[in-house]
Q: What sequence folds into this?
């Protein structure tokens, strides 16, 4: 009696298992299918030749990462590259950019091991000094983190938005940003955020706005900056544009840093907070109703009113 398809597949898997193989389903980006096929073909060829690789599974994985890593420019170049400001680009910076692009191309898999210092030096053909310089840059931006102990090394991390905001704020303070600059930039960004929120808002977003307005109901002059700005950070998140969210968040933080609100008397703060809650409620209702003109009008009025509270 002829065997069914399921039985033939089971027999095939049993034979392969006896040969030291296992059945595995892998989901990879379409662009990487050829690379994985080549890698698997090379491994099968070695097995057929009786050449069982001596390297440990971890080293096999690092070998595959090395194959997937784009080649770096030669450390000895005829002309030294410079950045947009004209400063020379170091080997560490070149390696930093290469590693960052590599992580992004892999889909930013948080927790993925990238290898030890020795592994990475071999993979990228880099000196210890250049690699450590690149690692310091990666850690500064919270792109990677170090795992200590046996089997440790670098792993992909989750970038810290607050650290990025702080770094940009420090530079803008150094550049001498003024209150009028903060207000003008905040107005442009928050109106752009509103347009995108109205365009992309879904039922879940509507409920988040209602919840936020309700949570603010009990606030008074004792409220902290985080409580008063939470509505605006929520709008920035709901807009769905990562760049706009970052820039808007930076300007919101700068506006708070330059505010004199917490130095005013309690009665003054109570009056201001009551007015802020009214604006937030009006803006939220207009956004949920998709009334773009009213939402923008209320936001513009709100930001204009901040002028007297900035240094």
A:
């Amino acid at each position: 009696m002829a065997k069914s398809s399921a039985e033939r597949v089971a027999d095939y898997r049993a034979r392969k298992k006896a040969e030291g193989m296992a059945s595995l389903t892998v989901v990879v980006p379409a662009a990487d299918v050829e690379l994985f096929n080549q890698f698997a073909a090379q491994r099968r060829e070695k097995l057929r030749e009786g050449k069982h690789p001596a390297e440990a599974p971890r080293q096999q994985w690092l070998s595959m990462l090395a194959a997937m890593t784009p080649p770096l420019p030669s450390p000895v170049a005829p002309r030294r590259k410079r950045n947009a400001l004209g400063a020379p680009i170091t080997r560490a910076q070149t390696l930093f950019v290469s590693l960052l692009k590599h992580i992004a191309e892999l889909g930013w898999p948080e927790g993925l091991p990238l290898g030890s210092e020795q592994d990475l030096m071999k993979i990228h053909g880099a000196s210890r000094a250049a690699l450590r310089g690149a690692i310091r840059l990666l850690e500064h931006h919270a792109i990677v983190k170090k795992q200590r102990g046996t089997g440790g090394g670098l792993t992909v991390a989750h970038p810290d938005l607050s650290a990025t905001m702080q770094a940009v704020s420090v530079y803008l303070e150094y550049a001498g940003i003024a209150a009028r600059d903060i207000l003008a930039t905040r107005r442009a960004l928050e109106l752009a955020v509103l347009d995108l929120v109205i365009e992309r808002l879904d039922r879940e977003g509507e409920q988040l706005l209602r919840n936020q307005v309700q949570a603010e109901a009990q606030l008074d002059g004792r409220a902290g900056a985080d409580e008063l700005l939470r509505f605006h950070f929520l709008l920035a998140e709901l807009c769905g544009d990562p760049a706009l969210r970052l820039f808007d968040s930076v300007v919101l933080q700068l506006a708070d840093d330059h505010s004199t609100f917490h130095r005013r008397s309690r009665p003054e703060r109570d009056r201001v907070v009551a007015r802020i809650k009214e604006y937030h409620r009006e803006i939220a209702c207009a956004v949920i109703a998709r009334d773009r003109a009213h939402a923008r009008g209320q936001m513009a009025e709100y930001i204009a009113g901040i002028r007297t509270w900035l240094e």
Q: What stands out?
A: The mean pLDDT is 82.
